[in-house]
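User: Can you write out an input/output pair for a complex, sequences first and structure second?

Assistant: Here is one pair. Inputs:
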Amino acid sequence: MKEFQSRNRPPGILEVKDLKTYFFTPGGVVKAVDGVSFDVQEGETVALVGESGCGKSVSALSILQLVPNPPGKIVNGRIIFQGRDLRGLGGEEMRKVRGKEIAMVFQEPMTCLNPVLTIGRQLTETMEEHLNLRLAEAESRSVEFLKLVGIPDPPKRLRQYPHQFSGGMRQRVMIAMALSCNPRLILADEPTTALDVTIQAQILELLKRSTREMKVAMILITHNLGVVARYADRVNVMYAGKVVESGFSREIYHQPGHPYTLGLLHSVPRLDEPRKAKLDPIEGQPPDLANLPRGCSFRPRCRFADDLCARETPPFRDLGGDHFSSCWREELPRRR
Amino acid sequence: MAQYLIKRLLLMIPTLLGVGILIFLLMRVVPGDIAEIRHAGEGSKISQEVLQKERELLGLDKPLWHQFGVWIWDVLRGDFGVSMWTGRPVLYEISIRFQLSLQVALMATFLAVLLGIPLGTVAALKQDTWVDYLIRVFSIAGLATPSFWLGIIMILGLLVIFGWLPPMEYAPIWEDPWANFTQLIWPILAVGYRYSAMIMRMTRSSVLEVLREDYIRTAHAKGLREKLILVRHALKNALLPVVSVISLELAFLIGGLVVTEQVFNLNGLGRLLVQAIEQRDYTLTQSLVLLTAVFFVLMNFIADLLFAWLDPRVRYK
Amino acid sequence: MEAHLEPAPGKKEEPRGRPRHWPRGVLRFCRQRPLGAVGGGVFLIMVLTALLADFISPYNPLQTNYGAMLLPPGGQHWMGTDAFGRDILSRIIYGARTALLVGFSASFFGATLGALIGVICAYFGGKTDVVIQRLIEILLSFPMIVLALAMMAVLGTGLLNVIVAITIPLVPRSAQVIRSSALSIRNLPYVDAARACGFTHSRIMFRHILPNVVAPYLILLTAYLGGAILTEASLSFLGVGVAEPTPAWGLMLKGAAVTFAETAPWMAIFPGLSISAAVFAFNIFGDSLRDELDPKLRTQ
């Protein structure tokens, strides 16, 4: 996959160039991320969308160099954050970036918080480490952040343990933790997938509001396209370890340039369609990342595929207006 | 948490009762008439009158449940009866040996924890390296080697290399610390080694499991230092099950005491139990086994208490 | 715990995770876990020794020879002789037989009975579970050796009695472990689905729950094997286990071995070494087996 960069856009605070993260397992080499490039501007929200296993979470972990090694390894690529290549940083330097410059919010608030430590402790320790605050200062700052994320009675809550919070509240705490050292970039890995539907919207609104307020950029990882339309400025659609389409979310939503994106959009049931209308799923199964087919990875499931797709991998083409797609077809049928 | 503990406390009562019944029945199931066995050594025929008197004395002519009731009632008042073998009160026999066994037990536990937890943690951190293998071999050796054999080899070694044997007589630690130390350090080592092996393994597997938890990944993502993550995040979680295991596996300790006191010829409770069985002293055996079981149940309860107090998920429901 | 689905009728049942061709699996095990393979190898040697004792033993283990007492290891007697002039090597070889007999029987019966009870408890729950749990708790209130000692006091010495005395403490321990394993399966929704399909209790228990507790059961077996051998050695050492003149490693360490420890240390060294080596091997083997069967604990 070639590098790409729009001439209209300045280099953002994060530029991922041709990232390749492979997992070396007894069963073969799993190419979880196979040549991914994207960028994030200051303050903007970029979505990484795709099915389970398409490599979006691994991409985020790769940015923070948290990929479990063994068996995973970043074999190629540059991760340029505020002008520095993160891959070139030593252990100590990278540690100083984590939590302070780039923070991450994980998917499972149930298991991502330490059950035997108070919420307060888990909040203050980051600040003590990165901002060199004393405990008392860190605690009062924690109270502020708990207020920011909408947790009532923060001083009391600081002394409590994770199991005394509900799922949604725990996720708010995780967001507070991520924001607490004023990072420039937040990686949100499916932050609402594990939560009740009613809470999901609240959390997403919270994320949107706080990132706007604090001028923090965000990479929002999700498999839910509805979320993307509303909360992301730009979107990168991923499939089988590669970015297959990229552009502004509104553009992609109305005129998708890749069959996979089209398929995703069509497969979501809509309230304004007649009840009798059939659901239109994408045929087939997610690919085996250790055994990808020749040519376009999506071909086995694509309804528009032809011989060229089986022979050669399509390039990442500019469809105009910062909209890129890797498909041989010039144009796809408009969305319903 | 209080509710949980009271519930556990109440549950202990039927358990203890069950234990008492089991021991009682066990002792009564012995083939042969106790009265006859007592007088077996006296040769030729004993008159039925003497035997009958003996039975009445031991209360063997009453129905079983009555005997049980009498026994339990006595025990609850602290009367454990008289040893059939020595003729002295059981409580007395126990009290003079209690101190020695307690000292060995406590010090062996102390040694075991001091050795077991750090080594187990190191083994987990360096999983599958030579350090890990070495520690694992060390701990498996500890579990595999019979503590009594270890004792024998120790004595052998002392004899052959130093031409010296540990003192025979027991001296309490405040009377003669040096004699006390030179006598007891060997059984403490023998028993403690085995106990520490158990703790080592438990710690290792617990730490390994904890290190794979999501919250450790979160801690890394926050950019905290390795040492801090280990001590504050990992160990605090990993040691929870280890703490309860330490008290639950006191069996290792008691078992070790029983055989090791034999090897080192120590006049402790473990040796007393063996002697009681050899001498067919049912009163003594009964009381000792009962005490062991009660002690055990109590330890389990304390382990639960400790766990409930340490784990915030239980403490703050 | 991996769920085990009812296979299509006619198809051979194969729990997921076990290699299809077991010789290949065994080779992989040897390569990846050399320590475990060594343990397994020692285990095999011991079994062979016990089986072929009649052929490989140089002397009759019960044969006394008052002209050759307390001889150090040498040409005629590779491990020396004991206080009665009996060849120690032969007694060690036949001792393997005793150890394995006691070890296998006790661990097998203990683990199996316990497993059955555990599965029944987990499956039926309710009053059955509560009552049996009480009984288990009562039995677990005794350290293993104390219970075994008490049983020996009641039963008297002898090989069969030793087996019984060691089996009994193992049953509740095994029941506890298997019960919690089975509980985690039993609570899976598909067990309820199976009931809804009308499968009988025993069918569900045997075809669904039992195969999934095979892994912890195997681990218990190997763990108890070592423990049983040690307990037998301790009991015999204390004089309440196997009786003279049966060749048993623990028994060989009793009495004369200690009295003559200074002048004839080989009497104590070889039996103890055998016990340690055997239990060591079983433990390593059991450990590696557990690591193999429990993917969570592998190095990531």
